[in-house]
Amino acid sequence: MRKTVVIVGGGFAGLELIKRIGNSSKYDVILVDANNYNFFPPLIYQVSTGFMEPSAISYPFRKILRNLKNTRFRLGSLIKVVPCENKIILSNGELSYDILVMATGTESSLFGNENIEKNSLPMKTISDALTPRNTILTRLDRATRYHDQEQRKRLLTFVIAGAGPTGVELSGILSEMKNSILKKDYPELSESDLGKIYLIDGQSAVLNTMSKNSQSYTYSKLNELGVEIKLNCLVKDFKEDIVLLSDGTKIESKNLIWAAGVTAKAFNGFSMDIFGTGKRLKTNSFNLVNGYDNIYALGDCALVQGDIAYPEGHPQLAQPAIQQAKNLAFNLERDKSPWTPFNYKDKGSLAIIGRNKAVFDLPKEKFFIKGFIA
Question: What is the rounded distance in angstroms from the CA atom of residue 41 to the CA atom of residue 356?
């Protein structure tokens, strides 16, 4: 008899696992996701600024799965896991499993600040991206109707919290919009009307996880584009059109875009001691969640222990998720033990700064590419 594998989350990890066991004679696979489509998160910023349509970075799950004979899709949000009964409770029913795979990714971390949660623009999902897109375009048109320059500046000043890849890419593309597109498409606005673009981060460098070369080049190019970068500084509050920073600075703006960190999604039913840093599920080197014999975690929500090179867990990027899924699929298809432990192979990191400007680090900083080629 085939075992039922329930995979919660159709991101990089979930789909990679399905691709490899979706036609297996050993398993019936059910994919569960709160959305009916997969999307490509690295290009969210292009959607949020109107340079790409949502359909360009998304694709329906059912079309992806149509040729996998043992795989089905279930639209629903996970509410609770019941390990003692081998079932999960969804927003629209229940599912039983023999093997449960958590590939639920992350969500924006707003650090419990109600004003930021209420008034800022998050950047995590396609729905999130459409909000800034509509907001930005609406405020641009509204600015053309105002005669008061201070009102215009508040509408056209953007504060981006978080100088990781998303924050860098957003600040770069907004700067290019300001320096070229706005002048052509909004002739009612003068140079003095256009507000500033701020990039804020609590770390000491932009792209903190990348090489010194990448950080230096990125900082320099963003400065050239006119981005005001404030490091070692946090966004503390956002209310009444004022962004308050930890150093006491107050920025008048209606636009706070939040790209300042993520946390894994925690679900009821798990023992609290299995959650590690950032609410990630602690697993052994085979991605088996600690304390369970048939629940696995992959990708951003997994804190794989036992890798000396990554004592704090692997980077929350696409490649660790894909490689973990490949390794788990290989182990699940094996008839014999022992299983193969997960071993992450770093393929490098890339971030786009703007038109013809990017940085690319190969593993261990042995090689660095910048500019148009990157």
Answer: 20
> By C-alpha distance, which of 155, 168, 235 is closest to 195?
155
List the domain boundaries for the chain.
3-108+263-343, 114-260
Task: Write the pLDDT tens digit of every residue in 322-340.
Answer: 999 999 999 999 877 789 9
- CB-CB neighbours of 274 under 10 Å: 17
pLDDT digits (tens, 9 = 90+) for 262-293: 889 889 999 889 999 999 999 999 999 999 99
pLDDT computed for residue 374 by the predictor: 92
Q: ∠ CA 295-99-21 to the nearest 5 degrees?
A: 120
* C-alpha span between 279 and 303 (Å, rounded): 9
Q: So what's the pLDDT on residue 66?
A: 94
Out of 3.40.50.150, 3.40.50.1580, 1.10.357.10, 3.50.50.100, select the CATH number for domain 3-108+263-343.
Answer: 3.50.50.100
DSSP string, 22-63: TT-SSEEEEEEESSSEEE-GGGHHHHHTTSS-GGGSEEEHHH
Whether omega before 83 lies within 30 degrees of 0, making that bond cis, reads no
Residues 148-184: tens digit of each pLDDT: 888 888 998 999 999 999 899 999 999 988 888 887 8
CB 30 within 8 A of CB 70: no
pLDDT at position 125 is: 84
Task: Please check whether the two domains, 3-108+263-343 and 114-260, share a CATH topology.
Answer: yes
CATH architecture of 114-260: 3-Layer(bba) Sandwich (3.50)
Q: Which residue has the tokens 């599920």?
A: 281
Neighbouring C-alpha atoms within 13 Å toward the C-beta of 346: 16
Q: Which of 174-183, 222-231, 304-313, 324-333 has the lowest mean pLDDT?
A: 174-183
Q: Whole-prediction pTM value?
A: 0.90
Whole-Å CA distances, 248 to 66, 237, 238, 242, 244: 55, 11, 13, 12, 7
